[in-house]
Amino acid sequence: MGCDDDPATVPIEEYAVLGDGSTAVLVSRRGSIDWLCLPTFDSAACFARLLGTRENGRWLLTVRGATTATRRYLPDSFVLETTYEAPTGTAVTLETMPLNDGRADLVRRLECTSGSVEVDHEWIVRFGYGAVEPWVHHVTDDDGADTIRAIAGPDSLLLRGDRLPVAQDHRHADRFTLQAGESVELALTWIRSWDPVPPRLTILDRVDQTRIAWGLWARSSAYEGSYREAVVRSLLVLRLLTDSESGGIVAAPTTSLPEDFGGERNWDYRYCWLRDAAMTLEALLEHGYVDEASDWRAWLLRAVAGSPQDLQIMYRVDGGRRLPERVLDHLAGYAGSRPVRVGNAAVGQLQHDVLGEVMCALQQARDAGITETDDSWSLQRHLVDHLVDTWREPDRGIWEVRGDPQHFTHSKVMSWAAVDRAVRAAERYGFDAPLDRWRAERDAIHADVLANAWNAERGTFVQSYGATHTDASLLQLAQVGFLPPDDPRLLSTVRTIRAELEVAPGLLRRYRTEKTDDGVPGDEHAFLACSFWLADALARVDDVEGSTEVLDILTGLANDVGLLAEQYDPVGRRMAGNMPQALSHLALVRAVHSHDLALERRRS
């Protein structure tokens, strides 16, 4: 497991994640930090080995010759502990990104706990997604200690610690032996290139403070229901993917991890999708996290301010609107999956379902006691008025197809949900609204879906008007209350979706790529969020045993530290897509919530 043992591709499930509320890092089981964007989620990466080679930047700290590496997060935290066992001894690494210090730091501590171990340390910095080799030199900090500083343009990285690697062939490396009781502490800090060197951190203190801070947040939900470990870890992931300053919620901390290994289905998810963020909000609210909901609503007001027709489906973490898609030709791609993309061209798509998710989340926020303001209701009214004028137009749908726009059933249903929640809000709270028009359009959307999306011959709702095949997004009909849970059309649709899209027990594809013009070649694997939607739908139709069976399967797919990617390949038994994926984790949380409610109904 030393520097000379550098596998070309680390399985996606072999990564753990650390984060500080502004960005996140992916670290492999063998101690290689292969992805880090600083200072924010959507900044350029300074370690990009994940999508290339070690020459694109990585930070390795590992025990050479270790035969096993066992990992865990310290309870209810993102402090990662890795225990290495080698023929000569054992060692333990603690690493985390400290919280609440207004800085961008990553700290690592490796201690030999028995015998002796040989340690490999390699530090290769490449700014600009692995393209820019920095100027690296030694400086002295205020304590008189040696510091390695890497600078390129506005970016600067500092490496400090007990023992620093030495320069050799455009990298810094070291190999040394630790005896039982000996340790090495290292800290990485990002600062602007013109800033002075900040004070050093006391590493063990910051590790402990960070562990306590994560634990306090996790325990504030007081959740003790079924699947507690999976639910709490998922809630923690959702918090990690929430920017602590702006309140924006990113879909994942990575870009271009492939849905199709070796193919072109590689997308940048380091942005704030209104849909994903709204569903995250619902998951957090169901567990009492009201402050996060309030912060996100404030982010929403800032991000979408302006004319309703200028609403985007996604924004930058700070609410910025520009995220043009471009290709990074200098990166080989994960497992040769190219192109590597940054930015996302889907930002310009029309997707009617987005406002439905937002309005459902805002209704839940109101019910949780978050007071509506004149500005927040005015925004919602203008957005709903615009949707009432445009819902009859075809769109690109929840899956952001790059083929021709369609009349997607899911988009129509979520348009209905948006207007329905707006009507309910105006009726319950007395908000000013054109209620007669909204009620009429709500009924019109409902009738339109029943007339055009139900295939009586097949006994199922279909993906789009005129189609004969299904789509896993139709499972959300149960979630938003479009039909009663015991409606035979809903029950039949769930059965048909399983028959068409279930590729292994409990695992669903989003749709069949050969039947859907999504504009991209290749295939993909089972989509974990859709699979959790199946568990959710089964719980809502009171099939508790079926829901339990699916949940048991899906929660068992998480990696050794409880993380889920976007998709899962049941044949190769590996994860696919960006990692960790907010949509997968929030769908887990919500499915378990529905499962628990179904159990309560059965007991009552």
Describe the model:
This protein has 604 residues and is of the alpha+beta class. The chain folds into 2 domains: 12-201, Beta-galactosidase, Chain A, domain 5 (Distorted Sandwich); 232-597, Glycosyltransferase (Alpha/alpha barrel). It has 14 helices and 26 strands. The strands form 6 sheets. It has a 15-stranded antiparallel β-sheet that branches. A 3-stranded antiparallel β-sheet has the order 24-25-26. Strand 20 (454-455) and strand 21 (460-461) form a beta hairpin. 53% of the residues are buried. The mean pLDDT is 95.
Relevant terms:
604 residues; alpha+beta; Beta-galactosidase, Chain A, domain 5; Glycosyltransferase; 15-stranded antiparallel beta sheet; three-stranded antiparallel beta sheet
What's a quick, concise take on this entry?
The protein has 604 residues and is of the alpha+beta class. It has helices spanning 127-130, 203-219, 228-240, 274-285, 290-304, 353-367, 374-390, 409-429, 435-452, 476-480, 488-501, 528-540, 544-555, 582-603, and strands at residues 15-19, 24-28, 32-37, 45-47, 58-63, 68-73, 80-86, 89-96, 104-124, 135-140, 146-152, 155-161, 166-167, 172-179, 183-192, 272-273, 314-315, 326-327, 341-342, 454-455, 460-461, 502-504, 507-508, 526-527, 567-569, 574-576.
